[in-house]
């Protein structure tokens, strides 16, 4: 699937176009893998539009994206037929792995009762984002109040559970009652607020009687503003994402004057900066998963042709937990 036009707003027909091409031949030093699942991430919408921490995808290029694939043929010293790998497969059915791949692929282990797709979600880059954002940047302390936005999404749901494991009071913000119910009844959040209800700001105040010490921010805009106004003096804000601005021409705004009024510390981070420590996070997340302390959910959309719809779901909130495309 190639990027044929830079989207305006939500993805429209013709922005990403699916075509058929010959499967590449495998030469010495290369391997061919069949992509089984694609990771659907908000940052893909940014990559389609503009240069950011990675250059924008060029018009006509295969759309960049993470995926899970199985090696079907190999003349590569590091991979054998049957290996399952995760990495930047691109939005395509077959990926050719070169000896000098810019972003290396990780082999995933076969663990009984653990679905491979978890290595794209709670045990993959998504979970690792939540882990380093929370543990390395946010550093939650026992008894603190933590608010997570886009809390029923892939990153937010893991981030909130990590703060619970650290002994915090955790409040999630999400866009449906069903999502809020999942957060409180299944994931153990102390409270969840549906921001689509007219009185949600009062509900947020009621859910944070001792103010907010740590904000794990995924959204920006009006949601972040409401949380900043609940922050305690010297609170911390972890800026993970600004999804409310990704489909707009203007970036998402927030009342940054609150940083002064409340003497807050705000730090953005990128999971890519932690590549050398991925194993550390994956080990810890795996342990929590085995202990039943880390739960997950997936929204699976079937068919590569549906990938644009799946990306749009991130912006309408039609997804829950980790969003994947099954090829
Ligand atoms: P996700 O949370 O699974 O999906 C996005 C969710 O955002 C939707 O389910 C929707 O839920 C919510 N949302 C979308 N537009 C919104 C709006 N205008 N206002 C309020 N909520 C909105 O996606 P994800 O992959 O886990 O990513 C979450 C955030 O983490 C994104 O901002 C992403 O860019 C960021 N991220 C950062 C890094 C990093 O290295 N810093 C890495 C990965 C992801 P509702 O129904 O609740 O609205």
Q: Briefly, what CATH class of the largest domain?
A: Alpha Beta
Q: Which blocks of ≥5 consecutive residues have pLDDT under 50?
A: none
Strand content: 15-25%
Query: How many helical stretches?
Result: 9
CATH architecture classification name of the largest domain = Alpha-Beta Complex
Instruction: Give the CATH topology of the largest domain.
Output: Quinone Oxidoreductase, Chain A, domain 1
Order of helices and strands: EEEHEEEEHEHEHEHEHEHEHEHE
Question: Which hetero ligands occur in this complex?
Answer: NADP nicotinamide-adenine-dinucleotide phosphate
Describe it:
The protein is of the alpha/beta class and 327 residues long. It folds into 2 domains: 2-120 and 297-326, Quinone Oxidoreductase, Chain A, domain 1; 125-272, Rossmann fold. Helix content is 27%, strand content 23%. The protein has helices spanning 43-49, 125-138, 154-165, 177-186, 200-207, 221-228, 257-261, 278-290, 307-316, and strands spanning 2-3, 16-17, 31-39, 67-74, 84-87, 94-97, 106-107, 145-148, 169-174, 191-194, 212-217, 231-239, 265-268, 298-302, 322-326. Strands 3, 4, 5, 6, 7, 14 and 15 form a 7-stranded mixed sheet that branches. It has a 6-stranded parallel sheet with strand order 10-9-8-11-12-13, with helices on both faces. Strand 11 (212-217), helix 6 and strand 12 (231-239) form a beta-alpha-beta unit. The chain is globular and about 60 Å long. Bound molecules: NADP nicotinamide-adenine-dinucleotide phosphate (NAP). NADP nicotinamide-adenine-dinucleotide phosphate is lined by residues 41-43, 126, 129, 150, 152-156, 174-176, 179, 218-219, 223, 240-244, 269-271, 314-315, 317, 319, 323.
């Amino acid at each position: 699937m190639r990027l044929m036009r830079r989207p305006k707003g939500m993805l429209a027909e013709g922005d990403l176009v699916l075509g058929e091409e010959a499967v590449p031949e495998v030469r010495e030093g290369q391997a061919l893998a069949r992509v089984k699942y694609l990771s659907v991430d908000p940052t893909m919408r940014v990559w389609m539009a503009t240069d950011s921490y990675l250059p924008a995808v060029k018009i006509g290029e295969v759309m960049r994206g993470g995926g899970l694939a199985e090696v079907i043929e190999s003349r590569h010293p590091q991979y054998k037929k049957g290996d399952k790998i995760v990495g930047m497969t691109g939005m395509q059915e077959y990926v050719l792995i070169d000896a000098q791949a810019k972003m290396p692929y990780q082999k995933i282990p076969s663990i009984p009762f653990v679905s491979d797709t978890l290595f794209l979600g709670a045990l993959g880059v998504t979970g690792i984002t939540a882990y380093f954002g929370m543990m390395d940047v946010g550093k939650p302390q026992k008894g603190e109040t933590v608010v997570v936005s886009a809390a029923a999404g892939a990153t937010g749901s893991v981030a909130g559970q990590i703060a619970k494991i650290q002994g915090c009071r955790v409040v999630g913000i999400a866009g449906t009652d069903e999502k809020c119910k999942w957060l409180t009844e299944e994931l153990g959040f102390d409270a969840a607020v549906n921001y689509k209800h007219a009185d949600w700001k009062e509900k947020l105040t009621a859910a944070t009687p001792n103010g907010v010490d740590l904000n794990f921010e995924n959204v920006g805009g009006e949601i972040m503003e409401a949380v900043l106004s609940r922050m305690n003096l010297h609170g911390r804000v972890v800026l993970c994402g600004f999804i409310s601005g990704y489909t707009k021409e203007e970036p998402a705004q927030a009342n940054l004057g609150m940083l002064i009024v409340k003497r807050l510390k705000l730090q953005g981070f990128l999971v890519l900066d932690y590549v050398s420590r991925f194993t550390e996070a994956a080990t810890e997340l795996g342990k929590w998963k085995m202990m039943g302390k880390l739960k997950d959910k997936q929204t699976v959309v079937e068919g590569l042709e549906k990938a644009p719809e799946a990306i749009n779901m991130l912006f309408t909130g039609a997804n829950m937990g980790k969003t994947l495309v099954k090829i």
